[in-house]
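Example record for the data management plan.
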Amino acid sequence: MKEIYLDNSSTTKVCREAADKAYQMMTECYGNPSSLHTLGFAAEREMQQAREQIARSMSVRPEEITFTSGGTEADNIAVFGAASQKRKQGNRIVTTAIEHPAVLEPVRRLEQEGFEVVYLQPDGEGHIRPEQIREAIDSRTILVSMMLVNNDVGTILPVEEAARAIARAKAPALLHVDAVQAYGKIPVRPQKLGADLVTVSAHKIHGPKGIGALYQAKTSHIPARTFGGGQEKNLRPGTESTPLIAAFGEAVRVLPELSAQREKIAALNRICRDGLGNIPGIVINSPEDALEYVLNFSTGSVRSETMLHFLASKGIYVSSGSACSKAKPSHVLAAMGLDSRRIDTAIRVSFSRENTEDDVRALLDALAEGMASLAKK
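Corresponding structural encoding:
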């Protein structure tokens, strides 16, 4: 049975180049990058090359990149660090109700500690309006945390408007952008976005799990929350995982040209949208202007888990939303105001450069079969 993997927003298959680099680092270039001998120097050099590769992809300086264990740790460092640094200048935090739990949970913890938190609510298509942002940010705002691309429905959030609103309000706020779902798909340029802190992760771009990075502008001096040997400029101490770091750099190096790749994915998305429109009962939840890599829809009659198992029996792998939600109903779809039937029957398809038109056709055929055999009469 052919495997058709359409759950790339959860994780991607590691590309051969990244896997080979990790193996090389574990078996040949295995020194501790802090060691003062040849093997240590070699490991440190590989790590620096990866840092430069990731920095170049974001048009920033290598010294502004800090390696972390992934997007979740980077988000936590950014949110808690920004609140700690700025708490004497204000008490307001602005975020959205559709952020990843790696942002929402730290923000809720800060709310429990006495910070005022504004959760911007999306419209029925998952959009956050610029005027909402302008109204929420005032002179007491110390942190704005907003994802660039939503992981459940693919909406692109107006991050640059947040930067303008911070400047307009003369707020002391740092702007943190969770770019995990955007990086490697659309350009992520912190300076163009006006972002002080940006989170990215390797396993969404055909790199390994367990490694991510935080861009930190030189003007944002967030304090450390963990302490140890002083690695990563003391912001994230501990012996660096050079196999994962080097593999991350390699995954970035072999990324295809973004605009051409986006055109290919857009074509797959359109085929899928058109095909879904021909299956009675299915309603698409992702708006037309969502990033093409993500397509969320509801069957209306077959629970998500049931349809997931049916598709998996055909060798087709999709999801019901963020893998971090552990199969809980999507808080994103709930925030969009969708009814319980649409939420409980939601399916997320997410594409990568390895997917083909044949994959989409197979999905559509299996969905039609599943609807015919599983839908409640």
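Summary line stored alongside the record: The longest strand covers residues 92-96.
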